[in-house]
């Protein structure tokens, strides 16, 4: 959720951002799919319990 929000994506994978830089770097974490949607390239999981408290 955090990474998709930083790249201007909503929960359905639609781009709603306002920055050209967001689109330029989109392929780092997402693949462009049909229907102008973006899908994650990987699932990132951090098991450290304290990371969200920082």
From TrEMBL:
Q: Which superkingdom does the taxonomy of this entry point to?
A: Eukaryota
Recorded hits in InterPro entries, A to Z, give: Tubulin/FtsZ_GTPase_sf
Q: What is this protein called?
A: Beta-tubulin
Organism of derivation:
Penicillium palitans
Identify the gene encoding this protein. tub2
């Amino acid at each position: 959720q955090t990474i998709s929000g930083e790249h201007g994506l909503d929960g359905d994978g639609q781009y709603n951002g306002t920055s050209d830089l967001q689109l330029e770097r989109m392929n780092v974490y997402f693949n462009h799919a049909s229907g102008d949607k973006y899908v994650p390239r990987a699932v990132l999981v951090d098991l450290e319990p304290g990371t969200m408290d920082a």
